[in-house]
Amino acid sequence: MLQVKNLSYEVVENGQKLKIIDDISFDVADGELLVITGPNGGGKSTMASLLMGIKPQTAGQIILDGEDITGYDIDHRAKAGLGFAFQQPPRFKGMTVKHLIQLSSGGELSEDASCQLLSNVGLCAREYLDRQVDSSLSGGEMKRIEIATAFSKPHKLCIFDEPEAGIDLWSFSMLVQQFEEIHKKKKESIIIISHQERIIQMADRIMVIRDGRVQQIGTKEEVMPLLLEGDGDAGCKYMKH
């Protein structure tokens, strides 16, 4: 289980403190799929970065399966069982796709296993294994490779930041299928940041973040009607169908 207690993050801008994440608390149960949604600029990606240790929280506590990981850096959080797929994946000139997947898996993967991971996200696998993870890959290709690396090993909890961004509809359908299969097994928890209704509909619970605060959190049955109503706050104006 993930427990997030009173998490905050602030920056100094023009000599003034600006709160990006403001006293957020929530939890994610074992095997649960939590979808975080809300308007752009509301703090969703910042929240994901705080959970993974990419940004340092200003205040608050993060506990994973009873282990306080608040002071851990990104490497130690990964070793504790957190996984992460960036919205805009980094590129690594000189590193092949095959090597990146091997590193992400934490062990040795056969070529067939690496190919299967790439095929599961809509890439013609053997065409990509020896390609470099550099500017020769499109944004959509990089996004799918990044997601494949997240799928390359089991986690206690894995965070996906807008996994649908920049990929075609066919690959998106394959991606949704992968999430459904992982969720069905209930062996790991998942947080997905998304605006896509099809992904939001998969959730056990939905959390809406707006202006750095939790606006709503509840079951899909409780929150989804509010999103579909489009009441001006938790409305469908930022949800894609």
In short:
The protein is an alpha/beta fold. The chain is built from 8 helices and 12 strands. The protein has helices spanning 44-52, 74-80, 97-105, 111-119, 139-150, 169-185, 197-200, 220-229, and strands spanning 2-13, 16-28, 33-37, 59-64, 67-68, 82-85, 92-96, 132-133, 157-161, 189-193, 205-210, 213-219.
Mean pLDDT reading: 89
Strand percentage: 25-35%
CATH-scheme architecture: 3-Layer(aba) Sandwich
CATH class (first level) name: Alpha Beta
- Largest sheet, spatial ordering of strands: 6-9-10-3-11-12
Helix tally equals 8
Shape designation: globular
The share of residues in helices is: 25-40%
Helix-strand topology string:
EEEHEEHEEHHEHEHEHEEH
> pLDDT under 50 segments (min length 5)?
231-235
Q: What is the number of domains?
A: 1
**End-to-end distance:** 31 Å
GO molecular function: ATP binding; ATP hydrolysis activity; transmembrane transporter activity
Protein name: Fe-S cluster assembly ATP-binding protein
Pfam families: ABC_tran
Organism: Frisingicoccus caecimuris
Topology:
Blueprint (H helix, E strand, L loop, with lengths): L1 E12 L2 E13 L4 E5 L6 H9 L6 E6 L2 E2 L5 H7 L1 E4 L6 E5 H9 L5 H9 L12 E2 L5 H12 L6 E5 L7 H17 L3 E5 L3 H4 L4 E6 L2 E7 H10 L12
Parallel strand pairs: 3-10, 3-11, 6-9, 9-10
Antiparallel strand pairs: 1-2, 1-4, 4-5, 7-8, 11-12
GO molecular function, one term: transmembrane transporter activity
InterPro entries: AAA+_ATPase (IPR003593), ABC_transporter-like_ATP-bd (IPR003439), ABC_transporter-like_CS (IPR017871), ABC_transpr_LolD-like (IPR015854), P-loop_NTPase (IPR027417)
Pfam families: ABC_tran (PF00005)
